[in-house]
Amino acid sequence: MKKLLPIIIVIALIASCKSYNTSQVINHDTEDSLVKTDTVSISSDETDYEIIIIEPGFNNWLLSTARPRGFHSQQFLESRNQLLVQSWNQRNLQPQVFDPNLYELRIDYDNLTDYGYEVNYLLYNYFIYFQLKYNQRLTSLVPRI
Predict the structure, then answer these.
(1) With CB atoms counted within 10 Å of each terminal CB, which end of the chain scores lower, N or C?
(2) Vertex 87 angle, CA 63 and 74, to 5°
């Protein structure tokens, strides 16, 4: 029995080890649960714009830490988003300088387009969350939580 217990422990340890691949196949059940828990999506009939943020932890942070809707004006959010998007896109174009895993996609944000309050609110708060989570500083402006 004394010799059997260490063998069982070693087998359990080996069985619990898992190698991680960078490419993963996600079935629809997993994708649905991911979409429900870690995705924030806003679309409006008033505007034809939609923002989808898939970031683990962002939804909880948004509900618990971010300033509530209405705290900042839409004009404030738009002006900050213009600066933050510009900085993000500059980093996206320089993968040799900035981590390409952080700045994977370019953000298409037109300064002359009215995206509405919700889209600007979510985008601004995502930038704040991103800077805090990944210890990045997109602008010289101090993020307001």
Answers:
(1) N
(2) 45
